[in-house]
Amino acid sequence: MNRAITLICRALASRAGVLGEDHPSTLASRNNLANAYESAGDLGRAIPLYERTLADQARVLGKDHPNTLISRNNLAGAYRSAGDLGRAIPLYERTLADQVRVLGEDHPDTLGSRNNLASAYRSAGDLGRAIPLYERTLADQARVLGEDHPDTLTSRNNLASAYRSAGDLGRAIPLYERTLADRVRVLGEDHPNTLASRNNLAGSYESAGDLGRAIPMYERTLADRVRVLGEDHPDTLGSRNNLAYAYRSAGDLGRAIPLYERTLNDCVRVLGEDHPTTQTVRSNLDVARNG
């Protein structure tokens, strides 16, 4: 990820120097850099860059330009990643309404925004709004994009997660299993979305009390994420936390506590003291030590 950020920074500097700060290609590079920072877990740099890019695109391209709408969606996503749902949800709602008006109900960007809004509702614990919105989005994406389109697979994964959050493992687990199988077939074993599906399926097995299936799947997912994404990727850190949690659930504190300690140190170093993942790992470690 550090190499990607370096390359995007160079491209941004070159475009700004040759084309100017306000050229659409320069603005696109700035959005890409913000996205790279967000993917690396550096929300402290991602959010201000998203905010600046959105303001410049609205000024240069107009509030209704598709690129402006995409930037607004991206900023809402960064707010959500930072746990700031008070800013994320209204921005998602506004973006969706504008995309319906400008692009139409069935445009892929509109469908993506509807999925993102459902995810924000789920993060806020509002499953009464999240689940029907996920179900509608999945049906529309299957109809418009096809059953095997990556966006359709993402929506199916997210709907399974909402079912799991609602305690409906009878619907969540089969949907996770189907999505994982389809992602392996369509995207490949090592695609980040495939790894996410495997992590989620392991979590649903754990929720069902089936640690015999959950722990080996968590272990495999962690090993694959280290190999594919690297030791410090936010998804890798999340997998390490999940595996430690499963060890603790199985009563194996001898493996859980050292894994939590290592993960906490890495989260502080990579993500910072105040990142939601860091706070979650710290809380889990406290419970493992004192519970």
UniProtKB/TrEMBL annotation:
Pfam (any one): TPR_12
InterPro entries xref list: NLR-like (IPR053137), TPR-like_helical_dom_sf (IPR011990)
Gene3D superfamilies linked: Tetratricopeptide repeat domain
SUPFAM superfamilies, per the entry: TPR-like
Domain of life according to the entry: Bacteria
Protein name: Tetratricopeptide (TPR) repeat protein
Species, as recorded: Streptomyces netropsis (Streptoverticillium netropsis)
